Amino acid sequence: MSIEFRCKCPISSALDIIGDKWSLLIIRDMLFDNKKTFTDFSTSEESIATNILSSRLKFLEEVHIIKKSKAEGNLKSNIYTLTEKGLNLIPVIAEITIWSDENIRELNTTMADVDRENLKNNKQAVLDGIRQGYLKSIGAL
Amino acid sequence: MSIEFRCKCPISSALDIIGDKWSLLIIRDMLFDNKKTFTDFSTSEESIATNILSSRLKFLEEVHIIKKSKAEGNLKSNIYTLTEKGLNLIPVIAEITIWSDENIRELNTTMADVDRENLKNNKQAVLDGIRQGYLKSIGAL
Fold it and tell me: Do B5 and A89 touch (CB under 8 A)?
């Protein structure tokens, strides 16, 4: 697989990989909703089209952000989990959450609450907790 | 203007606004390359198509991430600058830069260097410096 990077800028290169409307939501679903299978992801509130979901899962696997394995006792079912590169996106997702909470509530007045004070005041502990919680949920801790 | 938010999730809502391949690059160009005009942005290394650039500038203005004004002494030329909401994206861009530097160099081997140690060890000072530098560059400090 070869990715067409637009240039040598690190920001641009990251967006060439995760700068679409779906990749970070798939990762969010893994981290916060314990989602692991194609069916799990396809039932998200944002209603991702199955062909796009399929293509994004394949791409995220190719760039080593997620990995695919077989479900225990069910060789027909694929399980997707985050790799270290995927887990390293937790700080990006946290900053997006803080920005969203503080800056676009007036645009989306139905937006869910965020425990902003805890996230801002204990950021590293919250991020570590998300990582540890995820690793426990997939049996890696 | 009304934005169709996919749901009430803060992460998803943010991506409905900045989750495309160009918005954060336009903001990057403002922050780090002192770009201000349509012509400035259209000469970026990533070669954004002018119709997409035009549409993204209009959208970013509508959601109050950037604002448009007239150049001093040249009423024909529009100047785009970041608002407070736009400046508040600096931490998001910083975390994307750190993630990129540490996780996807193997995919884009020509990626430019990042002063990662400084960014990681003095993060708040670096972020404050970027904000202050930008505000000075537009004559707001």
Answer: no
What are B80-133's pLDDT values in tens digits? 999 999 999 999 999 999 999 999 999 999 999 999 899 989 999 999 999 999
Bridge partner list, B70: B78
The alpha carbon of residue B16 is apart from the nearest alpha carbon of chain A, in Å, by 7
Phi and psi, residue B90, nearest 5°: -55, -45
Measure CB to CB from residue A104 to each of B13, B24, B107 and give the nearest one.
B13
Cross-chain residue pair A21–B19, CB shorter than 8 Å: yes
With CA atoms as reference, report the closest residue to A5 among A18, A36, A138, A47. A18
pLDDT digits (tens, 9 = 90+) for A3-19: 889 999 999 999 999 99
Best of B5, B6, B11 to disrupt the A interface (most A CBs within 10 Å) is B11
ipTM for the predicted complex: 0.94
Closest CA to A127 of B99, B127, B115, B93: B99
Smallest CA–CA distance, residue A122 to chain B, in Å, is 15
Asked if residues A78 and A70 have their Cβ atoms less than 8 Å apart, the reply is: yes
C-alpha dist (Å) from residue B43 to A5, B37, B74: 17, 10, 21
| Chain A neighbors of B94, CB-CB under 8 A | 95
Identify whether the C-beta of residue A28 lies closer than 8 Å to the C-beta of residue A9. Answer: no
Q: How far apart are CA B107 and CA B104, in angstroms?
A: 5
Q: What is the pLDDT of residues A76-120, one digit of tens each?
A: 889 999 999 999 999 999 999 999 999 999 999 999 999 989 998
